[in-house]
Design goal:
Distance between the termini: 32 Å
Oligomer: single chain
Largest sheet: 6 strands, mixed, barrel
Order of helices and strands: HEEHEEEEEHE
C-alpha cells in the first residue's frame, strides 16, 4: 500500500528520473531568435564557437542546460545546449548556431519567432 502512495505522489508532482518535468505553461519563453557563427571565438562558457554544433546563447540559463527550441512558423523543433550568453538585441530570447538555424528553417531569413522550454 505504501508503494502505491509513493508512486502516486511522484506522478502527481511530475518527477521523472529525478528531475521535475517541464511545466510548459510556466517554463516556456517565446520571442525572437537569430543565429550566429563566430567560428573559433571563445563562448562565455570557454568553449570554442562551433557553427556546426547544436548550441545556443541565452542570457540567464546555466551553461549545459538543454532547451527545446520550436520555430513557430514551421513547427520544427530541436534540442540545443546552452554554452554562451546573449542575445543582446531587444526582443530576442535566444541565439542559435548556424547549423541549428538551418535545421529550424530560418537560416536565410536570419531570425524567427520561437518558443523555448528547458528539458
Amino acid at each position: 500500500m505504501k508503494l502505491k502512495v509513493v508512486v502516486a505522489l511522484i506522478a502527481a508532482i511530475g518527477v521523472v528520473g529525478g528531475t521535475a518535468a517541464p511545466n510548459f505553461a510556466r517554463d516556456q519563453q517565446c520571442g525572437g531568435a537569430s543565429w550566429y557563427a563566430m567560428a573559433g571565438n571563445r563562448t562565455a562558457s570557454g568553449e570554442r564557437m562551433d557553427p556546426s554544433a547544436m548550441t545556443a546563447a541565452h542570457r540567464t540559463l546555466p551553461f549545459g542546460t538543454i532547451v527545446m527550441v520550436t520555430n513557430e512558423r514551421n513547427g520544427r523543433s530541436l534540442n540545443l545546449r546552452i554554452n554562451d550568453r546573449g542575445p543582446f538585441v531587444h526582443g530576442r530570447i535566444i541565439d542559435v548556431s548556424k547549423a541549428a538555424a538551418t535545421k529550424l528553417g530560418f537560416l536565410g531569413a536570419g531570425s524567427a519567432e520561437v518558443c523555448i522550454v528547458q528539458i
